Amino acid sequence: MESTRILAIRHGETHWNTQNRIQGHIDIGLNPKGHQQAALLGKAFVIQENHSTNHETNHETNLHMIDGPHRSNTMAIYSSDLERAYNTAEHISNALGLPITKDRRLRERNFGDFEGKTWADIELHSPEVSRKWRMRDPEWRPGEGSESLLDLELRVKGVVNDLASKHVGSQIVIVSHGGVMDMLYRWATGQEMQTPRTWSLENAVINRLLWTPQHLSLLSWGDSGHLDELSIDDSAA
Domain of 126? Predict the structure, then answer.
């Protein structure tokens, strides 16, 4: 069966993430922790690049990539053109010796007038808007020039189908944003647009997917083992 393995990664942490401030298309950079997360992500790829994969002889192991990302079969790195994603992707690029292709279709959802505001701001000053947001109204757009959830879904499926179809039989890395990760999870698991989220969208973790022209499947979600060193450092601070 024609398939492409996808490692989908949300960018490292930003100051606005810690403030629950809506970033959308605003070009926010990584904070110090985000840079550390990205560095550890790159380190994970370096380690895997040096790890022998000769023992992988069965189909199940190849599918699930139990030992993590595989340098030998990674053909391309794609990133949102926003700084927080691109800077995260740079560490993977350095580890694999592959260039990064920027693609603005991998940007976060466009939140229009609400970019730069916190969720608390919206709850306090725009309760009706907050209700629509909580209800996940698929057709509602948060301000002029913004995207609905249906708009975002169409964009995400379009770009992933496009990129994955170019690398059948190999693996690609996609570095993007929380809203894009959410759409990928819903697509791969058949979750309805209005289903309350019960899955995590953590920064700089590795999410593994398998694409075919007919379907997107979830292999594993939220692999954060490479960030354990950061957790130890945080607890010692």
Answer: 4-236
- For residue 189, what pLDDT band results from cuts at 50, 70 and 90? very high
Give mean pLDDT, residues 53-71. 40
Q: Which amino acid is at 6?
A: I
- C-alpha 14/C-alpha 33 separation (Å) is 8
pLDDT confidence of residue 233 = 58
Could you give the residue numbers annotated as active site?
11, 108
Cα gap 28→213, rounded to integer Å: 34
* Count of domains forming the chain: 1
- Please name the amino acid found at residue 229: E
Which carries the bigger pLDDT value, residue 45 or residue 53?
A: 45
Task: Kindly list the strands in the beta sheet with 216-223, ordered across the sheet, starting from the edge strand earlier in the chain.
Answer: 100-102, 74-79, 171-176, 4-10, 206-211, 216-223
- Rounded CA-CA distance 7/207 in Å is 6
CATH code for the domain of 219: 3.40.50.1240
pLDDT, position 47: 78
In the block, tokens 């922790």 appear at 33
